[in-house]
UniProtKB/TrEMBL annotation:
EC number(s) given by UniProt: 2.3.2.27
UniProt keyword annotations, A-Z: Chromatin regulator, Coiled coil, Metal-binding, Nucleus, Transferase, Ubl conjugation pathway, Zinc, Zinc-finger
Taxonomic source organism: Populus davidiana
Keyword Iron-sulfur (UniProt): no
Chief location of this protein within or outside the cell: nucleus
An annotated Gene Ontology molecular function: zinc ion binding
Annotated protein name in UniProt: E3 ubiquitin protein ligase
Length: 107
């Protein structure tokens, strides 16, 4: 009877060991899966950071381009204003001169 109990205990322990081994396999598989997923996420994060850096560079360039265009536009507008002022001045001079001559012609 004592031998039967020992054999039963051994079988019970073998069963528990087999169950534990299956659990360990499952945990190892999950750990490998998680590691692969972490690597994938790390690669995605690195790619996203590189894209963000590129976008920031492009934004900086676009801001510079807008600023440069605005300065150029301001210079063009200033030149237009100068030309318009000059035209107004010339028109006044052109329209006033004949009038001045007409006034001089009459006593």
């Amino acid at each position: 009877m004592h031998l039967q109990q020992v054999n039963a205990s051994v079988e019970s322990l073998k069963s528990r060991i087999a169950h534990s081994e299956e659990q360990m396999k499952h945990y190892v598989i999950e750990a490998v899966r998680s590691t692969k997923e972490d690597r994938h996420l790390a690669i995605n994060l690195e790619s996203a950071l590189l894209e963000l850096m590129d976008a920031e560079k492009e934004l900086k360039w676009l801001k510079y381009a807008v600023s440069s265009s605005q300065k150029e536009n301001d210079q063009v507008q200033k030149k237009i204003d100068e030309i318009q002022t000059e035209l107004v001045s010339e028109r006044k001079t052109t329209f006033c001169k004949p009038y001045i001559y007409l006034v001089r012609d009459f006593p």
